[in-house]
Amino acid sequence: MRSASPSLATQQALQYFQAPKSYFWHWAEGGEVVEWQNGGTICYREELQAVLSALAPEGLPPLGAVLLLLASCSDAWPGARALGVLQATARFLMQPGAADEREFYLNQTIRFLNLVHALPRELRTGPPKLHLFREVLQEPNRKTGPASLAVVLNLQQVRSQQSVDEWCSGRLDAALQAPAAVATNDYFLADLLCLDRAFQRFPSTDLLALRLRTGQDRVPEPLPELPETPPDEPTDLLDELARDVRTAGLARLTQRLVAALRIPLHTRAASEQPLGGISDVTNRGNFDRLLLSELAHDDLTLTARLINNEALYLRREAPPTHEVRPRVILLDTTLRLWGVPKVFALAAALAWARNSAHGHPPAPVLAYALGGQLAEPVDLTSLEGVIETMGRLDVALHAGTALRHFAQEQAASAADAATDGLLITQAELLHEPEFVAVLAEQKTTLRFLLTVSRDGELQLHEYQNGHRTLLSTSRFDLEELLFALGPRMPRRPLPARVLDGFTPAFLLQEPAPLFFPTVGVRVSVRNTFYHPALGVVVVTDTRRVLYWRSRSYGARELLPVMEAGSYHFGADHTYATDHKSCIYLLVSGADVLRVYFFATTSFTAAAIAPEIDMVDLSDELDPGQEPTQVGFENGCYYVLCGGRKLLFDCRRREMHHAWPRPLKLPAAGSKPDFGHVKRYINNGYSVLHRVDRLGVNTANELVVDGYEVRLVIHDEPARQELVLAAKTYYANSVMRCRAERVETQPQPDNPQLTFRRFQWADGSEAVVDTRGLLHLRSSDSTIPEITLVLVLGQPAAAWAADGATCGASYFTGSELKQSLSVADFVDRYLLRFIARLT
């Protein structure tokens, strides 16, 4: 009985997958491995299957080119074994007289394979590797080449996914082991040409990496820079004040006062009003001004005259133009007005002047500063004038003498010029007998009196015929208006965690489910902050920022990595027990000046996400400049940069380019008691953070570098503990299975930390984290990922990716909803993980 002839897909698959005789590669181990002709491994069947399945929809390239590209993606490339096999194949297959062509294409291929191997590992391994094959072996490369190779290329470019499925099914494994025809020169040249075409497209590693990352063959040209346009200069005084950090609060308060203050109009005696006469007769007007003679007409005639605008009306005399009197502002600058009342009074003066200038009609304004003896003119129309007025202070108890002298000078120089005078002073002075006596004398000098108080109350009084009348009372929240956050300094987002498929699930949680152990900490004044009410902050040797809120718990990781530089700590001690308490950290270095804000009340024993903020002040530095000195006092950082003095107010987050007074630079931070701090951040444990051996012993216990992860039950008092038992020197025979160390790589969010990965035969993995953690990932997807805290000398803790925790409250916290007993946790998670291994 004749056997059925093979299908077309089977024939194509045999043509494509069968290794030619005396070629550089062959099948081994029953078709499970592809090897070099001299025995080295090129790839495994599963890896080749994944690549060909990705390429099949667009047509398969020559199989030899695929295998060479797979070899270059391996960490073992290049090797003397691989290069030797290729050179031997070339010498065997190339036709006589084609030595130059042979050497050229072989060298081009090897150069391209070296170029691919030089790619970053993340672009040539894992899922990104499939993208690499699609880009390098894409359709245009498979259609080019000498005409003499067309038949060979057509044979190798299998376009049927069925042919690949036929090979994947394993039905061809026996046939692929049978002897095949000897490879030809054109067959080998087709493999080399495919990679040579790719080399022409990507002549450098950078160009290939750019294509893989962006899909572009070159970086787009930047857009042409737009011509710089000067910023619009403020034309209004309040806008200028609002833009300056020194006067931003004054501008906010002035805007409120402009809306609150109402200046009464000046009135005259009734006998002085030229009103009541008739100036003309007109045919336009109101009915109440009709001439009486018009009412003598009958109704129809009167209606006709009204409709035809023939009726006559009286036109009254126009009222006189409102008399505009110059307004004089007398601003008290004596002792009672120092501090907040001075700013309040100045804001009132600015509001009065603004309302006067924008009145109908506008009134001219003159302003004077009243000291203890003299009244001096001041400028309230410019930013410089306002700042100069803010600096005027007089040590006199009141301005009575200056007010009397001013009144005398005004009376002597302009006896016939009437003015509306406004005195702005402190409300408490109205109870000062000497000052009240001077006020009583000013019957013609003053028309208004405006008093301010420290609690934000403003009262406006008017003098009429020597009597003072209260017109209005207003109250303002000075704390909100004067000290609200003004224009913020440039702020940049905090560096985000860089995560990849290698990152353990524990580090994907925000915040971390467990407190961290103390690792890499050397306490010094340069990296440590301590305050009894706030806790301890340390920048570790690996530049992690750790925070201990209480000595009863481990550390919170505030930042996975901090910029290199000098560290200067501070805190607003007046708010140490307030809900707004905050620790500040200024980082200074060449071209670096940043302030971090850590809200300490958000770091409790429970797992609450920390509140962290940062303001970048680096633009204040010249290129290459580094601050020479940094100090902290009263919530402000004082920074010396060459000859420049910078002051950063942490509460308001405002930058000033001058110090308020000559000041001896204070030291930033404080020198803590190092012995006390060390006891505060560590309760007597040591950390196992470098592990070389992992396995499971005959007692089904996980063994980490000789320490056995064990459940310990105590009777008195009754408690369960998870501990790493004392080190035992065990022989290989007592270990049921060992994990092989696969690789070590830096952590993505902090290159100074590493992940050391181990793997068991079943595919389960363990990742040793130099933070002092061990992450276990089972090959059984139903077992959640497990994280253990590797501490010695004290009870440890553990966490599972479904949220369960167990162990010492020092690491788990006090408010965990899914805390299990250690026995339950070991039963549900750890023993299941170990059972899968064994």
Describe what you observe in this structure:
With 838 residues, this protein is of the alpha+beta class. It has 5 domains: 8-214, no CATH class; 241-262 and 322-483, Rossmann fold (3-Layer(aba) Sandwich), CATH 3.40.50; 282-316, no CATH class; 518-681, no CATH class; 686-837, no CATH class. Helices cover 29% and strands 24% of the residues. The strands form 9 sheets. Strands 8-7-6-9-10-11-12 form a 7-stranded mixed sheet. The chain has a 7-stranded antiparallel sheet with strand order 31-32-33-34-35-37-38. α5 (99-117) packs across α12 (185-201), α15 (248-260) packs across α17 (340-357) and α19 (400-413) runs parallel beside α20. The longest helix has 19 residues, at 99-117. The two termini are 51 Å apart. Mean pLDDT is 80; it is low at 140-159, 485-500, 575-579, 604-609 and 729-733.
Number of domains: 5
Into which percentage range does the β-strand content fall? Answer: 15-25%
Main sheet strand line-up: 8-7-6-9-10-11-12
SS field, number of helical segments? 24
Oligomer: single chain
Beginning-to-end CA distance, first to last residue: 51 Å
Low-confidence stretches: 140-159, 485-500, 575-579, 604-609, 729-733
Q: Biggest β-sheet: count, sense, barrel?
A: 7 strands, mixed
Structure classification: alpha+beta
The helix content, as a percent range, equals: 25-40%
Shape estimate: elongated
Q: What is the typical, i.e. mean, pLDDT?
A: 80
Number of strands: 38
Q: What is the gyration radius calculated from CA atoms?
A: 44 Å
Pfam families: bpX0 (PF19915), bpX1 (PF19917)
Domain MoxR-vWA-beta-propeller ternary system: 39-208, 756-836
